[in-house]
Amino acid sequence: MSGTHIFQSSIDSKLITVSVMNRKSNLEHAHRDIELIYMIKGQLQVKITNNTYHLNKSDFILINSNEFHSFQSEKDNLFIVFHINYLELSSLIGQKNLLFTCNSNEQSHSSDQELRNVIEELLSVYMQQRNDSEVEALEKTFKLISLLKLHYLKSTNQLELQNHSTNKGQNERLSEIMEYIQSNYREALTLEEVAGLHFISVPYLSKFFKKQTGKTFSQYINEIRLAHAVNELVNTGKPITRIALDNGFPNLAAFNRVFNESYQLKPVEYRKQMSDTTEKEERITEEISNPDSDEAFTELQQYLKSSVEQKVQTLPATTEIIETETIKIGKLDAFTKYWNKLLNIGYAKDILNSDMQEQITLLQDEIGFTYARFWGLFGDDMLVEDRSGGKITYNFSNTNKLLDFLIKNKLKPFIEIGPKPKIIQKAIGETIAVQTISERSQEEWKHLFRAFLLQCIQRYGIDEVETWYFELWKPHTDVFNAGLQDEKDFLDQVKNNNQDVGLSQFKEYFKIFSEFKKHTKELIPSAKVGGCGLSMDLEGDKLDLLLEQWKQEEYQPDFLSIYLYPIEIHREKYRVPIKNLHSNNPDYVINKLNEVRKALKKAGFDSLELNVTEWNISISNRNFLNDSSFKASYMIKNIIENLNQNHVNMMGYWLFSDIFSDFWDSKTLLHGGAGLVTKTGIKKPSYHAYMLLKQLGEILVAKGDHYIVTKRSGHRYQVICFNYKHFNYSYYLHPEGSMGIHEQYEIFENNEKLNLSLEIQGLANGKYRIKELKLNRDHGSVLDEWLKFGAVDDMKLDEVDYLKQICVPDMKVEHHVVENESMVLKGELQPHEVRLFEFNLLISDL
Hints:
Blueprint: E1 3-7, E2 16-22, E3 26-29, E4 34-41, E5 44-48, E6 51-55, E7 60-63, E8 69-72, E9 78-84, H1 86-93, H2 112-128, H3 134-152, H4 156-163, H5 168-184, H6 191-197, H7 202-213, H8 217-235, H9 240-246, H10 252-263, H11 267-273, H12 277-289, H13 295-314, E10 325-328, E11 333-334, E12 342-347, H14 348-351, H15 354-366, E13 371-375, E14 385-386, E15 393-394, H16 397-408, E16 412-417, E17 422-427, E18 430-435, H17 442-460, H18 462-465, E19 469-472, H19 487-499, H20 504-523, E20 528-534, H21 540-552, E21 559-564, H22 588-602, E22 609-615, H23 629-641, E23 648-653, H24 685-694, E24 699-703, E25 707-712, E26 716-722, E27 754-761, E28 766-775, H25 782-788, H26 797-806, E29 810-818, E30 822-829, E31 834-844
Parallel strand pairs: 10-27, 12-13, 13-16, 16-19, 19-20, 20-21, 21-22, 22-23
Antiparallel strand pairs: 1-2, 2-9, 3-8, 4-7, 4-9, 5-6, 5-8, 11-24, 14-15, 17-18, 24-25, 25-26, 26-31, 27-30, 28-29, 28-31
C-alpha cells in the first residue's frame, strides 16, 4: 500500500506545497509547478524526459516547469515532494524564465549539504502543525528559495547564451513553437493555426517538427495534454470528463483512447489504482488531526528526530581547535584609501547650525576627510536671491559662511547642484518631513550659478576652486526620495519609472548638464563636473542606454556618481507581499559596482572616474540598526571587500550626524538616525569603524573573508578582523524599522562567534609592541550601553557625558618576541565584532 500525506501552511500555500510519500509511483505527467524530490529512505526511480535517475537516501532532484516526469517505487521507501508555484517563484526571484540545474545524482555542488539542511529544517517546521509556526515556515521557505536561486538557477545571461549556440535559427524557431504549444495546449490547436502564427507553410512545419522532435505535431501535443491530465487525475478530485476538456481533449472518448494507447488502461482504472482522490483528501484531513495514524507522517517524524540527534552527536566537542591561516609577507602592493575621501554632511542650511559645525570639526580632527558633500546651497532658506524691485540680485553671505567654515577645517566642497529637497525617511515610501526648494528656469539657474562661481573665484582664488567637485542632480533617478506616502505608491513609481526606457528620459538631463558643465569649465577649467546620482536605475539596459547616449553628447561627465543602498525592487509583478525591500544578498555592494564598471566599459567610459556619492545599509533615518554594532561590521566588510576593486575613486558614507534627521519624533537619545554620531555627540559604532580603518597602512599585505593586513614604512603592521552577520529570512517579513530596540540582534543568520587565527610569516625577529582594540556589543556600542542604562528618554547632561566616555572600543597593549620570523594572532570575535591589531618592531635582533 502506498501512502501520501499533504500538508501546507496557510501563509505560503500559494507558494509551496509539501507531500510526504511512501511506496508511491506515478505515471509520466507534467505541470506548471516546479517539483523538488528529496529522499528520506529507500530508493526511488525518477524519469525526466528521456533520462532515468536512481535516488537513494539524502538524494534530491529538481524537475523544471512543464518537464515530463514520472517516478517508480519498487520497494519500501519514504520521500518528500515539494511543489513550488512557478508564477509566484518567478515574481519573487524577479526572472521570467526559470531553469534550474539541481540534481545530487549528476554533479556535486558545494551547497548540496546546505540545501539538505534547509529542506530538513522546513520539514521540521511543517511537522509542528502549530498555529504560531506559520512565520517560521515562511522563513524556511524563503531560505530554500534563496539557496536555489543563488546556487542552482541559470541566469538570464546563461539562458541567452545557451539559446545562441549552434543552429541558432532552427533552435529559436523550434523553441518558439514549443513554447506556444506549452502555453496553449488547452485550446483546440491545429497544425494550420501554429504554421500561420509562425509564418511558415503547413507541409514545412509538419516535416520540420517531425525532424526536430521525432514526433508528429499531433503526437507531441497529445503527450503534453496527457501529461497535464495525469497530474490532475492523481492530485485533484475533478470529474474525468472535466479533466479531459480542461486539458485540450475534444471529448472523453479521445482522452480515453490516448490514455489507453500510452498506459494500456483507462483513466478511471488508473485513478482507482491510485485510490480515489476525494477519499484520499478526507483521509488526509483526518490524519492531520491525528498525525500518529499516518504511516508516512510517523516515519518522517522518527527520521527528523534521529537526524537532529545525529547532528548533535557530530558537533565538535570543543571549539578550541582552530585552523590557522598563514599569511606570507611577499610582494607588497600600495593602495589608495578611498573610503575617507568623501563624507556627506547634509543640507546646506543645517551646516550653519553651531552643533553641526562642532561635530564636523570633531570628525575632521579625529578621522580627517578630504571632501564634504552637501546640497541645497541655493535653497530658499539660504536667502541667495532678492527678487524685490523687479530685478534679481544675489546675496551669498550664507553660502560664504558655509564655505568659509569648510575650508577652515581643511574640507574641500563637493557640491550637489539642483532643486533636491531635504527629506527625512522613516523607511521606503514613508516620509517624515520634506523641505523643498523652489524651482527655477534654466536661465535663472545659469545666471545664479555663474554669479556664484565668479564670487567664489574672487573670494577663494581659482587654484582652490579648481579642486572642488560639482555634481548635477538628476531628479527622476532618485525615486526613493520622492516624498511618497506609502509602499504601494513607491513600488508603482519604481515600476513605471523603469518600464519606459528611452532617450526621452535623458534628453532633458543632458541638455541641463551640458549648460552646467559649459559654464563651469569656462570659468574653472580644471574643476570636476559630473553626475547623475544613479540609484535604483542601475539595472541592465537602462544604465547601458544612459551611458551610450551620454557618450555621444558634446559635454561628457568628468565622473559618474552613483548611490548604493541595498534595496531590490521586483519590477515585473508584485504577487508576493513585500514587507522589507532590503536585498538578501550580502555581496550587494560589490556586485552592483561590478555591474556599473562593466556598463562603463561597454559604453566606452573605461577610465571614467567612479564615485559612490552615497552609500549605507538603508535610506531610513528611523532604523536602530544604524546605532548598533552590526553597522560597524557592515561598513568594514564592504569597504575591505571593495578595496582595489572596480576602480572606485571615493565612497561617501550617508550621513555624518543624527542632527540631520532630528525632528518631532526623535526625542529619545537614539532614534535610528543614519549618522556617525548621535545628535548629542556620542560616537556610534559606525564612527569607530572609521577610526579603526584610519589606522590601516598604505601597503596591502593580504586580505581574506574576515580580515585585512596592511603595513606602514618600517616594521609597522595593522590587522583588522571582523565577524559580519547578514540578516536571517524572518527579517524580510517585517517592515523596515519595525523591530523594537530590544530586538535588534534577533534578526541575523546566526550568533556564532568567529575563532580567527592568523600566522604572519616573514617578520623581522625582535621585540614587538602589540595594541589590540575591540569594537563589539560590550565595547563601543551606544545602543547596547543605552539599553543597559534603561533606554530612558529623559537623559541628563552628565549622563550623556558618561555615555560619551564609555562608548569607546576596548584597548590593551602587550609585548611579544618574534624568534622565527613568525607571529600568530588569535581572537574569538563576537557576532558583529571588529578588532584591530597594531604591532610595531621595538628592538631588532639584528
